Amino acid sequence: MPEPQQAPKQIEPKGLPDYLEVMSKAVFQSGMSWRVIEAKWDGFQKAFKGFDPKKIARFGPDDVDRLAHDPGIIRNRRKIEATIDNAVEIQAPTTSCTSSGSPCLLTTSGWPHARKARSECGG
Question: Domain of 66: which CATH number?
């Protein structure tokens, strides 16, 4: 008899580390079975310092090389670099840059709003 289907564990974001973890999980799951990612997720949390954006943003080329050889995670260099880039971007300061002068805020309703605000900023 086949095993019943189970859904992957959901992360309830409460702060920037949680949002970065959610984004990173989505990045690493792309093209992979979620079961593979779930089985290795403890390794991801350890390798990426609990998804603390401040710590990950300081990762350099040596860290990318180290992670690209870490058997505890999926060793895709592009996905590792994307996680580091996302750590930098998620903590970027909000500035008044929209045409109305209002701040460019990230909201839980999704990143499309951030992309729109960013395009208004010329980025």
Answer: 1.10.340.30
Q: Number of structural domains, the chain?
A: 2
Q: Provide the pLDDT confidence category of residue 117 given band limits of 50, 70 and 90.
A: very low
Whether residue 120 is found in the same domain as residue 63: no
Q: Name which of 115, 98, 97 is nearest 106 in CA terms.
A: 115
Q: Return the amino acid letter for 62.
A: D
User: Taken in order 17, 22, 27, 32, is the CA torsion positive or negative?
Assistant: positive
> What is the rounded distance in angstroms from the CA atom of residue 120 to the CA atom of residue 123?
7
- Tell me the pLDDT tens digit for each residue of 14-60: 788 888 999 999 999 999 998 999 999 999 999 999 999 999 999 99
CA–CA distance, 51 with 108 (Å, rounded to integer): 18
**Residue 110 pairs with which residues in a beta bridge?**
107
Instruction: Report d(CA 75, CA 67) in Å as an integer.
Output: 7
